[in-house]
Structures are given as structure tokens and as C-alpha cells.
Amino acid sequence: MNKRIPVHVHAADPIMSTGLEATMRPRPEVLLVPAADLDEYGVVLQAADAYDDTALQELRRLHRNGCRRAVLVVLDIDDATLLDAVSLGVCSVVPRSEATASRLAELVVRAGAGEAALPPDLLGRLLKQVGRLRQDHEPRPNADIGLSERETDVLKLVADGLSTQDIAHQLRYSDRTVKNTLHSITTRYHLNNRAHAVAYALREGLI
């Protein structure tokens, strides 16, 4: 990795914040920065025991200021808040018990590349939550939304949790084609990341 990813650590508990900063500072992939120095390619590393309204409000503030990618370290998060967090740019959620330096660095790198990495149980909860919301929306056909067959195929595999490389292999595309396809979707509909794109597509009845 040639370029270090700007990362802003935030936690309501100063001890937790200091601990996360100490954990991430030695990592060669990471450059710790204040929130003001984050841009759309930087990553927020946010920690909270229970992801409540206060933590979500802070994420909204950072999102308004231009940060579009985040990794959450939590003990617990409810389904509705998980959906809100994904819509605000959360790419990954990691339990506190699994938040090792190497794991956090891996998730930060993936978030910096625009990739989502939700644990299977959280992804399942997210899909169920979106499914419930989908019942309140009349599905629109692909032609009205403008998704191509390639975009639909790629999003379905993202929803299954496949990586860029796995999607490329399965669909016989290059990695660049998969990345460009996802970039086109997120840009066209002003979505934050892959997880947000999947949530949007499910809500609209596309996949």
C-alpha cells in the first residue's frame, strides 16, 4: 500500500478514543488526522458501546462536513440504526471483541477503497430491515430506475457478500469493470458506498 489513508478516530468516551488512536497510530496503512482534515476519501473510525442517537448525530455531522466512509466499533446496534448508519456512509461494523489492530486496519483499507464489509449476521439484519421498508414502497422496474443487467448482476453479488475479486471471477469481468460498475451506481444515485447501494436497490425492488 503506497498511500496512507486519512483516518479520524471518534468516541464519546475519551479513554476509548485514546485507546483506538494508540492502536491505529503504528499502522503503516493509516494516517490519523483531525476531523477538519478529512475529505470524501478519508475514513471515520467511530466507537461506541451502544450505537445510540448521540453517536448517530455525530456521524451525521461528519457526513455533512464531507466524510462519506466510516467504520463502526460497537457492542450493539439495533436494526433501524444500522440502516441509518449505512445510509450515512458506514462501510463496516465490527464488534468490540474483534477490534484488533490488524482487523481495524483491514476494514479501514477496504472502506478507503469504497468496499463494504458487514458481518453476515448484520448483513442479514440489514436485508430484513430493508425488506420491511420495501413493503411500504411499490417496486419500480429496472427500466424506470435505469439499472443495466450488468449493474443488477453486480449488486446481487455484493448483497451476497462477495468481494470485488470474487464478483469479477464469477461474472468473468475484470476487477476494474466491477469497480467502475459500482462507482457508476453510487454516483448516479448519490449513494455513499456499496452497502448503501444494496440497501437502495433492495428498497426499490431491484434485486
Description:
The protein has 207 residues and is α/β, with parallel strands linked by helices. It folds into two domains: 5-117, Response regulator (Rossmann fold); 129-203, Winged helix-like DNA-binding domain superfamily/Winged helix DNA-binding domain (Arc Repressor Mutant, subunit A). It has helices spanning 14-24, 53-64, 79-87, 101-112, 120-134, 142-145, 149-159, 164-171, 175-188, 194-203; strands at 5-11, 30-32, 43-50, 70-76, 90-95. It has a five-stranded parallel beta sheet, with helices on both faces. α2 links the parallel β3 (43-50) and β4.
Query: Hey, roughly how much beta strand do the residues contain?
Result: 5-15%
CATH C-level class of the largest domain: Alpha Beta
Order of helices and strands: EHEEHEHEHHHHHHH
CATH topology of the largest domain: the name is Rossmann fold
Structural class: alpha/beta
Summarize this structure as a short list of keywords or feature phrases:
single chain, 207 residues, alpha/beta, Rossmann fold, Arc Repressor Mutant, subunit A, 2 domains, 15% strand, globular
